[in-house]
Amino acid sequence: MERVNRILRHEAFREHLEKNEAAEEGRIFCRHNMGHFLDVARIAMILNLQEGLQLPQDIIYGAALLHDIGRHEQYAEGTPHEIASARIAPALLEDCGYTPEEISRIEEAIALHRSRETAQRADLAGILYRADKASRACYSCKASEQCSWKEGRKNLEIVI
Ligand SMILES: [Fe+2]
Ligand SMILES: [Fe+2]
Known about the structure:
By secondary structure, this protein is mainly alpha-helical. It has a single domain, classed as Orthogonal Bundle (Hypothetical protein af1432). It contains eight helices and no strands. It has helices at residues 2-9, 11-23, 34-50, 57-66, 71-77, 81-95, 100-111, 124-134. Helix 5 (71-77) packs across helix 6. The mean pLDDT is 96. The site of one fe (ii) ion has 5 residues, from loops.
């Protein structure tokens, strides 16, 4: 987990996280903070085991910690956050010791984490997509009625 903890301590990571927190202060819907990143990482780890994908832990955590890191740009400039996050992630991952091949896999998974076509893939992008969606506790959300997620997509039960 050494490389994962390097991300955690990385100055750019902390700056982007703070910008997300500032942009979401008072937000009634799901947030894109450290709690969410860790929920996604841990659910992705469970999926990784259940589906026998054998993806390395630091690849999964790297993708989960960074998949929404550029969310603040979506609020500020309207940039879709998967695009902002996929742009921010590579330099940060490189600083933290990830290889070019690992970086491109993580970058791809981040860029596709909102594409429905990714949902069924048996790889990093697929588990990131599924973990992200499964992480949201719609069944206990007070803002559920105003949420933009369509009724059929909300998590109405705990599935993982
Ligand atoms: Fe996202
Ligand atoms: Fe997310």
